[in-house]
Structures are given as C-alpha cells and as structure tokens.
Design brief:
The protein is mainly beta and 269 residues long. The chain has a single domain (64-267), classed as Porin. The protein has 1 helix and 9 strands; from the N terminus they run αβββββββββ. It has one helix spanning 2-17; strands at residues 64-79, 85-103, 106-123, 126-136, 139-143, 155-176, 203-226, 230-241, 257-267. Strands 1, 2, 3, 4, 5, 6, 7, 8 and 9 form a 9-stranded antiparallel beta sheet that branches.
Length: 269
C-alpha cells in the first residue's frame, strides 16, 4: 500500500513540473558560394595585355578642287634670204576644271578646255594669218588609285576622262596693203567670192567660221602636293571629236594631243 501511494505521488509531481514541449529551431545550413569569374592575379614577369589600336581610315582630303592647265609650243619664225618674208606657227592648250569628290579617290566635275593653232605670214607690206581653235565643255571623271592604298601621299597619279560638246572655230585675217589681184591672194579662196573683195585695198578683212559637234578626252597626270591646299602637276590627254562639216578649216586644225602644267586649289572638308 505504501509503495503504491509513493508511485502515484511521484507521477503527479513529474506531470506538474513539465511545461509545454518546444521544437528545436533547425540550424541553418551554410550555402555554398558560387564561383566568380575572376582573373587570377598577374604573375611577376608576365607582360600586361595592351589595347588594340583601331585600323587607320583613309585620309580626309579636300572635297572640292579647282585647277588651271596651260601649255604651248611654237616652231619659231624664220626669214627668207631676202629678209622680206617670214612665217611661223604656234600651238597651245589651256583648261579650267572644277571637281567635286563623291569619294576620297573619285571626283566628278565639269571643265572648259581648248586647243589652238595660229599661223602667220609677212611679206613686205602684206600680212596674212589664220587661227584655228577647238573648245569643249566636257563632264569629267577623275580617279586617284593611290588614295585607296595609303594615307601618306606627296605624289598622286590619276586617270581622267570626259565627254561633251566641242566647238570648232576658224578665223582668217588679211591686212590688204596692196592690190586685190596679187599672187598671194590665191592662197585665200574665201576672198574671191566675198562682197568685200573690191573694198579691201589698204584695209583689213577678217572672216570667222564656227561649227559644233560632240567629243571627249582621255588622259592622266600626276599631282605633287604642296601642303593640304595647293598642288602642282603635269597632265597629258588626247582629245577627239566626231568630225566637223567640210569647209570649216581653211588652215591646219589643231591635233588632239596636249601636254600641260597644272595648278590646283583644294578646299572644303
């Protein structure tokens, strides 16, 4: 009996002392750190990487150009043994050209070109002469191949071509200090049927003929750069045309070749 009473008393005391049951908080598990893409520190003696330089771009040249061309030659004057007669002739070429560059190496523009030939005779008091001129206004194209290859250029070769209207002009001149039936008048057929023939004694007579056709030019040259603004060069070209009406030329017409010195002015960026 006493043993049973002691067991009950012990069980009652244990039930009073125990509180509510608590669940232990879980211990957080440490997260694994994700690897970072970090470059390893440079090792002593290794060369540091250098930045890559950009590729060079073509040089920026002037966008516009005006040039003047000129050249000429003569066969001189010479006298006959009596020193009372002399004659001679001369030829010349000139040009004025404007170019606008649509690319650094390619220009398109317009030009005015001319080829001329003049000849004259002097015989005592008689003076005769004639002049023939070919003038054209072509649309021109010019290409500088070296501009696509290098930025440093002191010498620039080029090729050029053009096409447009061509004008032929022929002028004859007589200083008529003498009789209209002199032997030298036969060299000028245009005076034989002129209404002025009987009035030219001690007077001057000039006749001009003009005709138009189509033609062009093909050539090339070399520019020597004098800084970024001016150039000095040489050029050569062959000029052609489709032909003129018969009877236009009373003297030898200019041939198609030309060789000129060129002065250029470059402007605009």
């Amino acid at each position: 009996m006493m043993i049973t009473t002691a067991l009950l008393f012990t069980a009652l005391c244990v039930g009073v002392d125990q509180g509510p049951t608590h669940t232990a908080a879980p211990v957080p598990t440490p997260k694994a750190e994700s690897p970072q893409a970090t470059a390893p520190p440079p090792v002593a003696g290794d060369a540091l990487p250098q930045p890559v330089a950009p590729s060079p771009s073509p040089a920026l040249d002037a966008r516009h150009r005006i040039e003047v061309r000129f050249g000429g030659w003569a066969n001189g004057w010479y006298g006959y043994p009596d020193d009372w007669h002399s004659s001679g002739s001369a030829q010349g070429a000139f040009g004025l050209e404007y170019l606008s560059f649509v690319r650094n190496d390619l220009g398109i523009g317009i030009a005015v070109t001319g080829l001329g030939r003049a000849q004259g005779d002097w015989d005592g008091g008689h003076d005769t002469g004639s002049a023939q001129m070919l003038s054209s206004i072509p649309v021109v194209v010019r290409w500088y191949p070296i501009r696509r290859l290098t930025r440093t250029r002191s010498v620039e070769p080029y090729v050029t071509a053009g096409i447009g209207p061509v004008f032929g002009v022929d002028t004859a001149y007589v200083d008529g200090h003498g009789t209209p039936d002199g032997p030298w008048t036969n060299d000028w057929p245009w005076t034989n049927d002129s209404p002025w023939t009987n009035d030219w004694h001690n007077g001057d007579l000039t006749s001009t003929r003009v005709a138009t056709t189509v033609g062009g030019r093909v050539g090339g040259g070399v520019d020597f750069r004098l800084g970024s603004t001016f150039t000095l060069g040489v050029s050569g070209a062959w000029n052609w045309d489709a032909g003129f009406p018969d009877g236009l030329w009373r003297g030898a017409r200019p041939n198609g070749g030309e060789f000129t010195v060129v002065l250029g002015w470059n402007f605009g960026r």
